[in-house]
Amino acid sequence: MLPENSLNYDSEWKCSLQDDNSKGCGYTMNCDKIDKMVDEVEEDLNSINTSGNFDKYSQFIKAYSDILLHKNHYLIITAARNLVQWYTYRNGSINDEELREKQSLCKQLDFVLARIDPGYSEIRSFVQKELHFATLMLIQRDLQSGVVDRETYLETTRISMKALDELERYKNLIKFNWIMMPN
User: How far is CA 81 from the centre of its chain?
Assistant: First the structure.
């Protein structure tokens, strides 16, 4: 659903297009109902934050993404970022399924961040690093279990290592330029 008039805060919301650009159902809702619905979903997300039960972020994303909210809605993106951070702090105890989920979430976050904040940013750098760390961990596990051959392992590792080196170079360039700026 999208507002019929995006410049009018009080606009009706209408289901007009599906993701495949086919015609939507035409159902409409007023902005107050939309606001209330988003507030309720936000409360659900905040309850995860305060509970400390961070594995519920995954359930939150599955429950709301492309069902009630667009997969790139700010609440879904917030939950995805929080879940990636939680997985990052658990790297030693993360299983293959969680690692694949982390990799997928990093790809989604990078896709969104590339559009709303292109170029180097701290959050995008974090997401890209975690994407490549997850990729490296997965390919190593896949090689050990015989899922991939050595050639695939080496190529994937080379690509991720190159990307990580490039991220480090950008970070150092930013620091250098920051130091060199006049007062």
Answer: 6
